[in-house]
Amino acid sequence: MTDSHPLLIRRLTLTDFRNYAGLRFGTSTRLVALTGANGAGKTNILEAISLLSPGRGLRGAVFEDLARQGGGGNWAIAAEVDTLNGPVTLGTGWIGQGEAGDSAGRLVVIDGESQKSAGALGDYMRMLWLTPAMDRLFAGPASDRRRFLDRMVTAFDPEHGSRILVFEKVMRERNLLLEEARPDAAWLSSLEAHMAEAAVAISAARLVGLEALQTHITLARDESSFPWSEVAVDGEIEARIATTPAVRVEDEYRRILRDSRSLDRAAGRTLRGPHRSDLAVVHGPKAMAAGQCSTGEQKALLIGLILAQARAVKDSAGVAPVLLLDEVAAHLDRARRLSLLKALGALGSQSWMTGTDAELFEGMGDEGTVFHVEDGTVRQVMER
Known about the structure:
Layout: E1 8-17, E2 20-26, E3 31-35, H1 42-50, E4 75-83, E5 86-95, E6 105-110, E7 113-114, E8 127-130, H2 142-156, H3 160-178, H4 185-219, E9 229-234, H5 236-241, H6 246-259, H7 261-267, E10 278-283, E11 288-289, H8 295-317, E12 322-325, H9 334-347, E13 351-355, E14 368-374, E15 377-383
Parallel strand pairs: 3-13, 3-14, 8-12, 12-13
Antiparallel strand pairs: 1-2, 1-4, 4-5, 5-6, 6-7, 9-10, 10-11, 14-15
Helix pairs in contact: 2-4, 3-4, 4-6, 4-8
């Protein structure tokens, strides 16, 4: 995709979502800044955009909790988006359980056509995000880094998320079956075969994604204002995939699962597999594990990773992902803020940012628009 055809959200509509009873606004610029006081609803807009991709969005919230207080229990999000294949209208929403006992559920609509699952959104939207909750990603539990890794890989490969869902679903079934006094051995073997197939696909996609990411980290190493890093996945299946044919690794993992049934039954969970892997990140200039770096250094590493990931996705998919950057500039000095805005502008796709003050976004140039968010409304402050 060329710079003249970026992935661009031109109009966004929210209905009974979080603090918005009804909101509709548009923009044609690649850089969008949402300003306003804390609690005004800036992050809610980013969250709404994130739900136009597969999954639970940047907060991972329960869908029922997204409905506006005082509303009817339903919510809806719609967007008019320029994509590689032309304009498309994307929509998603939640229908709560009605008085007649109708079942609740998430709806996904693309150009007026209802879809079977949210996975269809991945065919149109590539998206990455950073939130303040991720600032301590490297010092937190491995599960947080693994989700971060898999979200990055999904930006390359939209089917990656579906494979993880399949693996986790089958793993839960196996765990439940192991709790039985006399589990059906044939059914266990069948579940383990499905797990092994999904595990190899998941691990292989992670390795491919990280290889592409490392390439783009290296390419920008000498010109970026953010520290370069070395990335790797620390996992048993990934290590085997790197040196052994996939079909053989699949057989090996299936045997591991079979031989671990007693241990897994005692633990009440599956102890080995891609769901135990971790993302390892090293601060390149300091040759220091990211988890040992200061909070500011970790933030800078995260920004560098996201920028490299966006460039990698653009190189492989032909379109840079939409970036959602919540309070990204709050703790950056002016030089780094300007460097970040320059890097975002060079991507050629759309970046949505939040901050308390418009001054944080000086330097956006002609590609930026600043909006003020207050009391469930959004008004344009200036178009740079």
